[in-house]
Amino acid sequence: AMTTIGDLPEDVLVELLSLLPARDLLRTCRLVCAQWRYVVDLTTLWKRKCQRDGFYRQSLDRSISDWRIFYMLCQLKRNLIKNPCAEENFQHWTLDDNEGDEWKIEDLPGAHGNDMPDPTVHKYFVTSYGPCFKSQLITLEKEGYWNQLMDEKRPEITVKDWYAARFDCGCRYELTVRLLSKDYIILEEFHPEPVVIEQWSDAKWREISHTFQNYPAGVRYIWFQHGGQDTQYWAGWYGIRVTNSSITIGPQT
């Protein structure tokens, strides 16, 4: 007699179905029949998908309660800040304050500057003698992070930014990151003290980073703003330099 796909042993079915994209598994395969729904919901299937896509580490076995969510978060994970390294001029950025001689883009290492530790970064944004601030608003649902996921799982949100001064001029750097509700109410905020760098500093690039955990339910947007100015009011672009900003969501793999 002809065997149907339903006659296959469970482990073979897991192996076959694990080859399909998560979307198809959840939207189509789960609805085929009770047996398929059972297999699609198996931890072993999602663990297998994690193995196939390189997300699996044995050390994670104890700490992960939901392999399906873990898989989805790993698959979605990327930098949510667009144009972080000034490769597309000021595209995707809102210039909130653009004073003095205004924001400008320069090539690394720049006058009296240093190269970044990351050799893939080639440009930076630089501020002037009046306040220069720029921001991005990230809509989580648009980026694939559905409401229930944000509210029930509250995946870690990690923010990173890089800043540096010129050797010959003092400056200040500021960063504000807000987790906002659907009505733009601030649910949580990271706003460290402004960094003031004196003239004749080492002009090295420094990273600032923060991870939001166990934040309130209801986060729908992330607002990222950074900038500053020089502290000596020199015409031109002697203020803080910023580049390589990132916001990532999900497990630190």
From TrEMBL:
Residues 70-251 form the FBA domain. Keywords: Ubl conjugation pathway. PROSITE patterns: FBA, FBOX. GO terms for molecular function: ubiquitin protein ligase activity. CDD domains: F-box_FBXO6-like. GO terms for cellular component: cytoplasm; SCF ubiquitin ligase complex. GO terms for biological process: ERAD pathway; glycoprotein catabolic process; SCF-dependent proteasomal ubiquitin-dependent protein catabolic process. Residues 2-49 form the F-box domain. This is FBX6 protein. It comes from Melanocharis versteri (Fan-tailed berrypecker). The gene is Fbxo6.
